[in-house]
Each structure stands twice: as C-alpha cells, then as structure tokens.
Specification:
- The structure is a single chain.
- By secondary structure, this protein is an alpha/beta fold.
- It contains 17 helices and 9 strands.
- A 9-stranded mixed β-sheet has the order 3-2-4-5-1-6-7-8-9, sandwiched between helices.
- A hairpin with a 2-residue loop joins β8 and β9 (409-411).
- The longest helix has 27 residues, at 96-122.
- It is globular.
Length: 422
C-alpha cells in the first residue's frame, strides 16, 4: 500500500516535469524514470501524457498536459485536482533528483520482491540448484545499472584521440593564465584539482585568480561556490583587484574620485563575465543540483571554496566529520566525471600539512597543489611556495615554485621581476 508521503512525492515529481521539463530530465537522468515506477494511477497517466508530449516535441506545462489527458478521456475533475496539487507542492524543480529517488527505489523493491517470492514458491516443486540458477539470471537482468549503459572501448579510443588532437591544436583544455599549467594542456574535461594550504597561504587567491582568467580573459562560462564569504564580498574584492585600487580604502570610506573612476571601469568589464556565483549550496545534495543547473547553462569550470565548510546532508548528520568530508569529496568527483565539468576545490590543511578530515581528497583529485607561506615571507618579499603534491598524468617536480603576492594576484618569478623594476 502506498503511503501519503509516497503519493505526495510522486505528485511533486510530476510537478517538476511540468514546471521545468528539460531541467528535470537532466536532474533525473540517473534514475531512468518510467511509468511503471508510479503507484498512483493519476501520476502514471500524467507521466505518460508528458512523455507523449515530449515525443511530439510539444510544449510541456500544466495546460498542455491537461489537454493531452483530456484527449485520453480521463476524468476531468480528478485530473485537474491532481495537477493543481502537484504544482502547489512543487515551488521549484531544483529538487527533482531527490523526488525521483523514492519512486525508483520503491519500484526496485517491488520488482525484487516479486522475483524472490516467485523463486520461493518454486522451491516446493523444483530442485534448489535450478531455482538458484534462474534466480541469479533474473537478478542480473534486474540490475538497474547494467554495463550496456556505458560505451564501447572503440568509442572510448575515438574520444581519447579527439582529446589529443584538440590539445595539439591548442583548443583542448581550459587556459588558466599560469604557464606551468597551460603548457601541460590546461584543465581537461572531468579534471578535479585540489588547492590546499593553511590559513593565509593564498590558496583561495590562486583559485580565484584562475577563475578570473578563465572568465575575464578566456570568456568561458564558469561558476563559483563560496562557503566562506558572501557574493558581494567576493565581487568587492574582485573589483578592487581588477581596478588596482584598495579594498581597505573603500571599506574605510576614504576612496578618492580616481579610485571610484577605476572601480567603475573595472565593474563595466567584470559584469560581462559569464560567471555564476552562490554562497547558498552548503550541502552535497544542493551542490549537485546547483552544478547540474549551471552546467546545463554552459558552465565549464566550477570553483568550490572550500570543501571542509560544507554541511552534511540529513542522511549523513550522524556520521563523523571524516565521513562527511569524504562523502562531499566523492560527490564532487562524481559530478566532474559524469558531467565532464572541471573542478577546482580549495581545501584546508591540518597542522601537519595533510588534507583536513579526509584522505579521500588525494585519491579523487587529478592534481593536488599545496600553497605554503615560508618563513622568509615579508612585505618586501611577499613570496609563497606552490608545491605539486600529485599529478596523475605528469611528473611531480622535486622543487617548489615561488609565487609573489601583489594585491589579490600571484605573480611568477618573471612577472615579479618586472613588477620590482617599476
């Protein structure tokens, strides 16, 4: 028997399809929703009508769905009440993936029970080994994630060769503005980069500098998930950095007319960036929903600052902090691989210089850059060291790379030399 909660979730999922069909299809792609998964007859009929409209490439909204169901001769009042209820309990389609989990799980449970019950009845009349063999075959066919969902190795080799060709043509990876990264092909699809460091080591500065180059210089759509600052604080620091003015002067209210002129000039340029920014996606589930949304809009790079600041999903609330951070890291890795989007994740460190709370980070990442503030760092020598801790497809240098902070920007040796001559 279906509970009221299950009925409401099925209605909410139908509401998501009517409010934002393309977005909901993307969010629920991993669940392969079919009409058989709906226990409610009204929900099943409505979903079939939505599928029919999609097949005909017709608009999908409550009115077109109601008209489609009317052609099927369904009861008018019951359908209208169901559709209104589905819309009322679905203020946004952002949680479609969550709403799709229960129908999928319940459907798999019902199907598995049917297989097991049928096998149990056969044991009274047939040999156990025969029943077991048939049961194993049925369970294999019942696999919700069969191997054929992937691609052939031949297709994979075609993709690999195309990647090599793009890199050779200089169009493969995303350019970061940092020569040591760009000379190795830039950031590739599905790549996860960890930038770690202790407090004050400029790890966030490096991540945001790469993001600014990708959006401002390359014009590539990207997104920033900031869990440490508000959106306006990020924008304020970016504007003062790009305009080469003082953030402190503006915050103290002593900026002069020249400062304001340069600031507005930088604003006119920066507001054209194809950049989305949020400080509200604070759990892995909400992060996944947000990333899928911005990727649908064309985002190629996601910067997360910082991983350990994420809050636990309700299902992980009783887990320890190591398990929560591991789950968040695995979520980012899966998003990068499945969506083909690049990720730069900022991570804090322990006193010993290890990634805080989870060793899963080092295994999930393609590259791991560690930022260090050395003892010789001072106002006259604002040097920081970048240590390559991991490079999955390349050589790990034995020496650190010096970077010099000027404002909110890190300069290479050559750039620092030119800056010092001024």
């Amino acid at each position: 028997m279906q509970t009221d909660i299950e009925t409401d979730i099925e209605a909410a999922l139908i509401g998501c399809f009517m409010l934002d069909y393309p977005g909901t299809v993307s969010e629920t792609a991993d669940f392969s929703i079919t009409p058989e998964m709906f226990v409610s007859g009204l929900a099943r009929q409505t979903f079939e009508a939505i599928q029919s409209l999609a097949a005909d490439k017709s608009p999908i909204d409550p009115l077109t769905v109601r008209q489609k169901l009317g052609r099927y001769g369904e009861g008018g009042e019951a359908i209208s009440a169901f559709l209104c209820g589905a819309i009322d309990m679905t203020p946004t389609a952002a949680h479609a993936g969550h709403s799709a989990q229960l129908p999928r799980q319940r459907h798999e449970t019902r199907r598995l029970r049917q297989i097991l019950h049928a096998s149990a009845r056969r044991l009274d009349d047939e040999p156990a080994d025969m029943v077991q063999a048939d049961l194993m075959r049925q369970l294999e066919r019942n696999d919700p994630d069969p191997a054929q969902d992937g691609i052939t190795f031949a297709q994979a080799t075609d993709q690999a060769v195309e990647t090599f060709r793009q890199i050779a043509a200089g169009t493969g990876g995303i350019k970061t503005g940092l020569a040591f990264l760009d000379s190795a092909g830039g950031i590739q699809e599905g790549e996860l980069i960890i930038i770690s460091g202790k407090a004050g080591s400029c790890k966030t500065t490096l991540a945001r500098q790469i993001l600014g180059h990708v959006c401002g210089n390359e014009g590539i759509p990207s997104a920033l998930v900031t869990l440490e600052m508000t959106e306006s604080q990020i924008a304020a620091q970016t504007l003062t950095d790009r305009s080469q003015t003082s953030y402190r002067k503006f915050m103290a209210g002593v900026a002069d007319e020249r400062d304001w002129t340069r600031l507005f000039r930088a604003k006119a340029e920066a507001e054209k960036w194809p950049l989305s920014i949020t400080s509200r996606t604070r759990t892995p589930t909400r992060l996944a929903a947000y990333v899928r949304k911005v990727v649908r809009r064309g985002a190629k790079l996601i910067v997360l600052d910082y991983l350990q600041a994420m809050q636990a999903d309700p299902s992980m609330a009783r887990s320890n902090i190591e398990q929560q951070v591991t789950f968040a890291s695995n979520t980012v890795r899966d998003l990068a691989v499945n969506l083909g989007v690049r990720f730069i994740v900022v991570s804090t460190e322990s006193r010993e210089g290890e990634l805080r709370y989870s060793d899963a980070l080092r295994y999930d990442a393609w590259k791991w850059f560690r930022m260090i503030q050395p003892e010789e760092n001072n106002e006259d020598n604002p040097v920081y060291h970048l240590e390559v801790k991991k490079n999955r497809f390349g050589v790990v240098p034995k020496t650190v790379r010096p970077l010099y902070r000027v404002g909110d920007r890190l300069l290479t040796d050559a750039e620092w030399g030119e800056h010092s001559k001024r």
